[in-house]
């Protein structure tokens, strides 16, 4: 660009990034995102279900933080865990369900049925976001296919079944189990 053409531009026009610069910056940013995703994948031992679990737990921690404090679920995470679809689904729901009584304490203004429905809705949203984030990461790494995709789908379906069972159990406790715990042993 010639000096005379620069002198004719306003300061705002000169400070505007060119389209080429914006494209370059976007490319650098995308490369950084992919590198970070790769680093996450490598640090998880390329185990997509471990990554899925960690992503779901991270999102659940975010949605539960206001009520239960920082890293409520992460504090319960054990690094040497079974990451099969069934075990991952069980852990996601069980760890979340463990915080129901704390959620109740934080929301005494709600009746029990509303507490149950609100809690399950809250953790469902966190789980959905966690799965979406994990899928996005794995898709960005171009590994969201075959067994990995099938395992994630299976895990998600199992989580949904377990959430439904959790809600049914909380809303309709087994009277025989309640009687057994109330009777002196």
Instruction: Please count the beta strands (DSSP E, at least 2 residues each).
Output: 0
Largest sheet: none
Alpha plus pi helix count: 9
In terms of DSSP E residues, the strand content is under 5%
- Low-confidence parts: 1-6, 41-46, 180-185
Structural category is mainly alpha
Overall, the morphology is globular
Distance, first to last CA: 90 Å
What series of H and E elements makes up the topology? HHHHHHHHH
Helix fraction, binned, reads: over 70%
User: What is the average of the pLDDT values?
Assistant: 73
**Cα-based radius of gyration, to the nearest Å:** 24 Å
Question: What can you tell me about this protein's structure?
Answer:
InterPro entries: DUF5610. This is DUF5610 domain-containing protein. Residues 46-165 form the DUF5610 domain. It comes from Amphritea pacifica. By secondary structure, the chain is mainly alpha-helical. It is 75% helix and 0% strand. The protein is built from nine helices and no strands. It has helices at residues 3-7, 11-15, 19-43, 48-68, 85-97, 100-106, 112-140, 146-171, 175-182. Helix 4 runs parallel beside helix 5 (85-97) and helix 5 runs parallel beside helix 8 (146-171). The longest helix is centred in the C-terminal third of the chain and has 29 residues, at 112-140. The N and C termini lie far apart (90 Å).
């Amino acid at each position: 660009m010639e000096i005379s053409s620069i002198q004719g531009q306003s300061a705002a026009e000169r400070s505007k990034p060119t389209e080429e610069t914006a494209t370059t910056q976007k490319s650098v940013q995308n490369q950084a995102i992919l590198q970070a995703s790769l680093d996450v994948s490598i640090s998880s031992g390329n185990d997509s279900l471990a990554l899925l679990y960690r992503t779901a737990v991270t999102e659940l921690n975010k949605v539960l933080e206001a009520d239960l404090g920082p890293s409520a679920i992460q504090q319960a995470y054990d690094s040497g865990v079974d990451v099969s679809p069934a075990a991952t689904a069980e852990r996601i729901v069980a760890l979340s369900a463990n915080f129901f009584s704390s959620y109740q304490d934080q929301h005494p203004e709600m009746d029990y049925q509303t507490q149950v429905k609100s809690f399950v809705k809250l953790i469902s949203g966190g789980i959905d976001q966690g799965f979406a984030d994990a899928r996005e990461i794995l898709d960005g790494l171009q590994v969201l296919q075959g067994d990995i995709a099938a395992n994630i789908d299976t895990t998600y379906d199992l989580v949904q079944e377990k959430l439904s069972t959790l809600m049914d159990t909380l809303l309709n406790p087994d009277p025989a189990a309640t009687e057994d715990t109330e009777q002196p042993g």
